Amino acid sequence: MFHRNPLPPFSRRDALRQMGAGFGTLALAGMLSPEQAAANGTSAGSRAASPLAPMAPHFPVKAKHVIQLFMPGGPSQVDTFDHKPMIKKFAGQRPEIVNRKTLRNTKMGLMPSPYSFRQYGQTGKWVSEIFPHTAELVDDLCFIHSMHTDIPEHAGAMMMMNSGHLQPGRPSMGSWLVYGLGTENRDLPGFISMS
Question: Range of 55's domain?
Fold first, then answer.
């Protein structure tokens, strides 16, 4: 006996439109958006075309990318790029200015870095002997030594460093950069956070 399908033929386009709550249509809309923007008279680089479209900077740009390496659990700043020669003077002591309640045992006092430091580059940046090759590039790197918080605890300080708040879920520096500057790439995220 010949079986006849009561339903009409189903094309791939119909399948994409009807399956997965219309994800196929969403993808098509995303692919057609530059043409739609052109039809509406808006340029692809304007915020009307896309909220993530690149914006014109306020001043001439030299950098093309920002790569932030935030390494909690890495070597101490005092052993790498934050030369503090006065710590040797107070080694083993606990001066009142640094006597704060923390989650760690700090009764042994201040401990100076066991590594030697030298100045490098035109900037005269002090760099530890741990990084002799990185030291040769100090004029091409950005060091921020002015950031501080009154939170003497690593988890809270990490939240403050990356988002400016202790409240979880606040926008990070990467999301603010994409919001303010936009991104040229429509196929990948503007920023990635790897844990």
Answer: 44-74+145-195
The answer to whether position 106 is within a domain reads no
- Looking at the structure of the chain, the number of domains it has is 1
Question: What gap in Å lies between CA 41 and CA 35, rounded to an integer?
Answer: 10
Instruction: Tell me which of 93-102, 111-120, 177-186 is least confident.
Output: 93-102
3-class SS of residue 155? helix
Please report whether residue 193 resides in a domain: yes
Predicted model pTM: 0.54
